[in-house]
Design a protein that fits this description.
Layout lengths: L2 H11 L8 H33 L19 H6 L26 H5 L6 E7 L2 H12 L6 H11 L1 H5 L3 E4 L4 H7 L3 H13 L8 E3 L11 H7 L4 E3 L1 H7 L3 E9 L3 H12 L4 E9 L9
Helix pairs in contact: 6-9, 10-12
């Protein structure tokens, strides 16, 4: 019997010596694959349905019930204070009146920072604080993409000009205790959102500084003095480039100022700052 006849007979009868062609194999395998894929999809959909019943989505701010995961409840959303123009073009702080394009605040004129422009998505208030705490201390890394989208919108002017996204680093001891860097999680998500390279290890925190909580503006500046250094490998990559520095909260600006100075000393051409929330009211210090 010719070989092609034996193959045809083998497919029909299941003879062990039959060797079906690749086309015949694909014709049999494709429907089987489709059935398996469809069945897997049904199983996953059923599992998601059971999870929604057993563990209904909760608002990450107030822990109230949500219709769908991935957002805030209507009450918390309405209380979130997004920062829009008019604001100081240098510091990104909201202004009471629109005095035209390029307006600078008195603070920016009196004490210009090392970085070029800073932008923040929201004001640091109760809702913003709860989101930062959930991300930072509650292991809610699932919040990073949502916060990063808001940040990318707020900082679209500086991100559009950027050659790279760099996070404010943690000292290795704190990173080991916390297990992740919230600023790096936000920076990576912004890089994906904006299509910009993310250089996670560009800066190193070489001094294990105490936390800034409860410190005055001057004490915060002294606390982070000399704490950051541009990595030697990253220095060659970023020399002459424009960088956006990412952090979760901007309070006095001491940390991003120290990071910006370290980047500029390493040859970076320009530094912009992008944070999720910034303190606007005097005396309002994150905890």
């Amino acid at each position: 019997m010719p070989a092609h006849d034996r193959a045809a007979a083998g497919i029909a009868t299941g003879a062990p010596d039959a060797v079906p062609s690749r086309m015949d194999h694909d014709a049999v395998a494709e429907p089987r694959h489709n059935v398996i894929t469809a069945a897997g999809g049904l199983v996953r959909a059923a599992a998601r349905g059971l999870l929604r019943v057993a563990l209904p989505p909760l608002c990450p701010s107030c822990r109230g019930p949500l219709a769908d995961a991935g957002g805030l409840c209507a009450r918390c959303w309405s209380q979130l204070a997004f920062i829009t123009r008019p604001y100081c073009e240098r510091l990104g702080t909201p202004l009471a009146h629109d005095a035209g394009p390029g307006i600078l605040s008195g603070e920016a004129v009196a004490n210009p920072p090392a970085y070029g422009r800073a932008r923040a998505a929201v004001q640091y208030d109760d809702v913003a604080a709860s989101l930062v705490h959930a991300l930072k201390y509650g292991d809610r890394l699932d919040l990073a993409p949502m916060l990063a989208r808001w940040m990318a919108v707020a900082g679209r002017d500086i991100v559009a000009d950027a050659d790279a996204i760099v996070p404010v680093p943690l000292h290795w001891r704190r990173l080991w205790m916390r297990r992740f860097n919230q600023s790096a999680a936000l920076g990576a998500a912004i890089g994906r959102e904006a299509g910009r390279p993310f250089v996670f290890d560009a800066l190193r925190r070489v001094k294990p500084t105490p936390q800034q909580v409860g410190l005055s503006r001057d004490a915060r500046a002294a606390n982070v003095q000399g704490a950051f250094r541009l990595d030697a490998a990253a220095q060659a990559r970023l020399r002459g480039r424009r960088v956006v520095l990412v952090d979760d909260v901007l309070t006095s600006g001491a940390t991003v100022e120290a990071c910006a100075r370290a980047l500029m000393r390493g040859g970076v051409a320009a530094v912009g700052v992008l944070v999720f929330a910034r303190v606007v009211k005097a005396g309002s210090i994150p905890i």
